[in-house]
Structures are given as C-alpha cells and as structure tokens.
Amino acid sequence: MTITSSGAGLSTLAQQYADDGFVLVKGLLSKEEAAYYRQRSHDLLAQLNRHDDPTWKSAMGLADGATRLQHLHDAQFYDAEFAKLLVDPRFTDVAAAVMGVDNVQLHHTKLFVKPPENGSPFPLHQDYPFFPHTYHRVGAAIFHFDDAPVEKGCVRVIPGSHKEGPREHNPEGSFHLTEPAFEVATPQPTEAGDVLFFTYLTVHGSGVNTSDEARTTWLIQYRDPADPPTVKTHDHSLGQGMMLRGVDPTGRSAV
Predict the structure, then answer these.
(1) Where do the segments described as Disordered lie (predicted)?
(2) From its phi and psi, is residue 110 left (phi > 0), alpha (psi between -120 and 50) or beta?
(3) What is the chain's alpha carbon radius of gyration, rounded to the nearest angstrom?
C-alpha cells in the first residue's frame, strides 16, 4: 500500500508502518525539488571524484556480470542543502510518527547512485546487525531523487518481516540473509520525490539497475535518542547524534 502524504494523517502512516514494517510516502518532495537534489547529488560526487565502490561481495550472485555503485557518507557535511533536508518537517514528522516518539535523532546518511546498465544490487538483509539498538526504535528513509522502476533496481521489502525480530545473518561479504530468496520480496517502484520509510528490522534489498538511466537516492538512518546502541559501531558517521526533531531527553552525548 502507498499513501499520498497530503491525503493521509500521520496516524494512518504509523499504523501501516506498524503492520507492514514500511510505508511509501508519495510526493513528499515535489518533482522540482527531487530534480534539484538529483543534480546536486551528481555534481557533488563529480566534484569529490571518489572512485571507491561499496558494492557488497555478497551481491555478486544477484547479477550476471560485474556491477558498480557510487556512494557518499554524510552528504550534509559537503553541501548545506542536504542539511536542510535533514530537518525538513515533512520528513521528521513522519519519522517521529512511525516510530511513535516525539524526538528524532540522526544515525547516519548515505548518498547512492546506481549507474545505468550495471548498477549494483543489495541482497536481502536487515539493517539491525550493522548497528543494533536496545529497543529497536531505529528506522530508515530513502529519498528518491529520480524515478526508480523495477528495471532500475528499486527497493524490495518483505511486508511484516519486522515482526519476527532480529535474524541471523551471514557476515561474509557484508551482513546478508541466505533465505528467503530475493525474488520473494515485493518491489517498491517509486517516482522522483517519493520517500520509503522502514524499520531496521524490515527485510529489504534492491535489484540491479539494468536501465539506461542512473538511480539516485539518499538514505537517512534515524532513531529514538532514548534507544541506546548495544555495541559501539559506525563511529565514522560524522553527524551521528544530531537532533533532527525535538530534544535528546537523556542528555547524553552522541554515541
């Protein structure tokens, strides 16, 4: 189910998120805003001239040949326009509502570009094993800056999979699930401006971009500041602990 952000209350979004582990909010950004951020994303990657490829070794089996991926952690530290989007109430109000809290804290961000024709896939996984937290009030929002149909390697999810809690992952080649099969996950094709919210317990992945256009997304991982991590990890994320909405009731520093 998809919900148009202008036509549904936050309580409806929160209920679907609780039931399915995700919610696709249509048109959270306008087409013009999405195009603007798409251009800034590609300009930023070109300016920085990064050549590292974060493709998971465990993703190799999902493609017929070699694939590529471009990425950037902490885009908000390179371009203030991304910092503005981090605290945009259209995003933060939904993030708070789906978690059932008032306060939203940043964990990290990643800018991804799947190049045309061979953009790298991601095998099915939960985000949980990368940065486990005590109460599991951790989620993600994927901003789509251009259209992401199935042939572009859109995100796939398994509805309701979050209800089973943390799963055992194979750590080889980055944490991934060996079952269920990738094909059983439900594609979530999107348009520019759509934002997909999901819990860090929701099983998800994405396919190969076989189209002739790049797929451009920005991932924001957020959490309830009152939910402490169980292990110290992801320390390279410069903005971790920044408050995006409300206050940190614990008064502790970023961890």
Answers:
(1) 228-255
(2) beta
(3) 17
3-state per-residue secondary structure call for 138-187:
EEEEEEECCCECHHHCCEEECCCHHHHCCCCCECCCCCECCCCCHHHCEE
239: region left, alpha or beta (phi > 0 left; psi from -120 to 50 alpha): alpha
Q: What is the pTM of this model?
A: 0.93
The closest of 230, 235, 252 to 243, measured between CA atoms, is: 252
Compute the 3-state secondary structure of the chain and give helix, strand, coil in percent, each to the nearest 5. Answer: 30, 25, 45
pLDDT tens readout for residues 52-90: 888 878 877 677 778 999 999 999 999 999 999 999 999
Nearest to 206 by CA among 82, 63, 79, 92: 63
pLDDT grade for 7, boundaries at 50, 70 and 90: very low
CA distance 153 to 67: 12
What is the per-residue pLDDT across 176-188, written as a single tens digit (0 to 9) for each? Answer: 888 898 889 999 9
CB 243 within 8 A of CB 105: yes
Q: Which two tokens stand for residue 162?
A: 């979050």
Name the one residue in this structure whose structure tokens are 């493609």.
Answer: 63
SS3 state of residue 96: helix
Beta strands, E only, the chain? 2-4, 22-26, 70-73, 104-114, 122-125, 138-144, 155-157, 186-187, 195-199, 204-206, 215-223, 243-245
**Cα dihedral sign, 114-116-118-123:** positive
User: Cis omega (within 30 of 0) on the bond before 180?
Assistant: yes
CA–CA gap between residue 231 and residue 246 (Å, rounded): 25
Q: Tokens in use for 179?
A: 């079952």
